[in-house]
Amino acid sequence: MSDKTSNQMWGGRFAAGPDAIMEAINASIGFDKRLAAQDIAGSRAHAAMLAATGIISDSDAEAIREGLLTVLSEIERGEFAFSTALEDIHMNVEARLKEVVGEPAGRLHTGRSRNDQVATDFKLWVRDQFDAFEQGLLALIRALVGQAEAGADWVMPGFTHLQTAQPVTWGHHMMAYVEMFARDLSRVRDARARMNESPLGAAALAGTGFPIDRHMTAQALGFDRPAANSLDAVSDRDFALDFLGAASICAMHLSRFAEELVIWSSAQFRFVALSDRFSTGSSIMPQKKNPDAAELIRAKIGRIFGANVALMTVMKGLPLAYSKDMQEDKEQVFDAADNLMLALAAMDGMVRDMTANVANLEAAASAGFSTATDLADWLVRETGLPFRAAHHVTGALVAMAERKGCDLPDLSLEDMQSVSPAITSGIFDVLGVHNSVASRLSYGGTAPVRVREQVARWKEILG
Ligand code: ARG
């Protein structure tokens, strides 16, 4: 298929073929074959435009169109012989097109370059990934809203510093992640809208003297408009960085939740049981049920954020316009996208399948003097103490309970009054965890009614 002594695309200027090492470092076909469908879609749009503008004949365009469909089906059937000598997907497709349709194939590359071609192909691929990212997030958000609805009034400990702080509701905790993944969703939609400009027709870097119609190709490929500056169009990889940025933040969110699931499913916490479908056993310890999916999700941030740093570093300091450095963009994004989609799907499955241990959650919520703040608030409300003084009184009561080895509601009224004579039996109403969460009615607070409002809002958004 290829002429080893000199390249069939630019052999005119070359007396010798490349060194084997040159070919090895230069070739991208090993990975950019993933762009085959996008490459062929781009070429079809370009050929149709070349005919519509009279740059090539209708019969040549028709031959190219049919030939490209043949090449596509060869690739889809796994019958295409990818060649490293042909370097990348663009030249592999064009060379095969030449074999299939002959002379008209040589007219396809009129008024374009591999520089606008690769930018277009990669954008189309990343755009699909933004769409898959959006769907993955929506599925996960649905799963979380479902958990929140089921457990809007289950009580669990809320933590700061991973120390028991105040009781919260399970639904409130789930809805916190809904907010995080909703911000991811907004980043994805924002970036998807921003990136949807077509590089095709920017040619090598300066545009072209042929009377091409970039609006026509942009529209055919589903872009909102052609990119306005040809130098920028061929050298922009912001869309890939936007993807990796949004993916990194989302992976960070996934990692935080995964960490909680690892902790919650441990024998020491037993807040949740993960399903058998999303756990593994141990080859030696028969009792083990390991949260491997959660651990792997926790780890995915490593390669996803790594890809972000890698591509940012590749792009840093590159002069305009295209440089071959930019060929290093694809593998990073491919790997990050594959792993992000997998992590989102695994988290979605785990969340749908997990069972909260409501009794353990409530027992843990009651431990650790979690309603001490409620006690202090009661002193402020009922006895008029300034909050700072109430904090002090409550601290003394916590110390007393700790000495006696009991919880706050187990102290007697006499015990309480020995610290502050103004305390009455009404105090016991606020020491229970259900009363505590029910009282947190401020907007965005953990009270079950507030959680149900948020669940209803989200169900309406999700439709
Ligand atoms: N394989 C190249 C890439 O991925 C395609 C563009 C090559 N352009 C060039 N002028 N060498 O970036």
From TrEMBL:
<keyword id="KW-0456">Lyase</keyword>
<dbReference type="InterPro" id="IPR008948">
    <property type="entry name" value="L-Aspartase-like"/>
</dbReference>
<dbReference type="InterPro" id="IPR020557">
    <property type="entry name" value="Fumarate_lyase_CS"/>
</dbReference>
<dbReference type="InterPro" id="IPR009049">
    <property type="entry name" value="Argininosuccinate_lyase"/>
</dbReference>
<dbReference type="InterPro" id="IPR029419">
    <property type="entry name" value="Arg_succ_lyase_C"/>
</dbReference>
<dbReference type="InterPro" id="IPR022761">
    <property type="entry name" value="Fumarate_lyase_N"/>
</dbReference>
<dbReference type="Pfam" id="PF14698">
    <property type="entry name" value="ASL_C2"/>
</dbReference>
<dbReference type="InterPro" id="IPR024083">
    <property type="entry name" value="Fumarase/histidase_N"/>
</dbReference>
<dbReference type="GO" id="GO:0042450">
    <property type="term" value="P:L-arginine biosynthetic process via ornithine"/>
</dbReference>
<dbReference type="GO" id="GO:0005829">
    <property type="term" value="C:cytosol"/>
</dbReference>
<dbReference type="GO" id="GO:0004056">
    <property type="term" value="F:argininosuccinate lyase activity"/>
</dbReference>
<dbReference type="InterPro" id="IPR000362">
    <property type="entry name" value="Fumarate_lyase_fam"/>
</dbReference>
<feature type="domain" description="Fumarate lyase N-terminal">
    <location>
        <begin position="12"/>
        <end position="306"/>
    </location>
</feature>
<dbReference type="Pfam" id="PF00206">
    <property type="entry name" value="Lyase_1"/>
</dbReference>
<comment type="pathway">
    <text>Amino-acid biosynthesis; L-arginine biosynthesis; L-arginine from L-ornithine and carbamoyl phosphate: step 3/3.</text>
</comment>
<keyword id="KW-0963">Cytoplasm</keyword>
<keyword id="KW-0028">Amino-acid biosynthesis</keyword>
<protein>
    <recommendedName>
        <fullName>Argininosuccinate lyase</fullName>
        <ecNumber>4.3.2.1</ecNumber>
    </recommendedName>
</protein>
<feature type="domain" description="Argininosuccinate lyase C-terminal">
    <location>
        <begin position="369"/>
        <end position="438"/>
    </location>
</feature>
<keyword id="KW-0055">Arginine biosynthesis</keyword>
<comment type="similarity">
    <text>Belongs to the lyase 1 family. Argininosuccinate lyase subfamily.</text>
</comment>
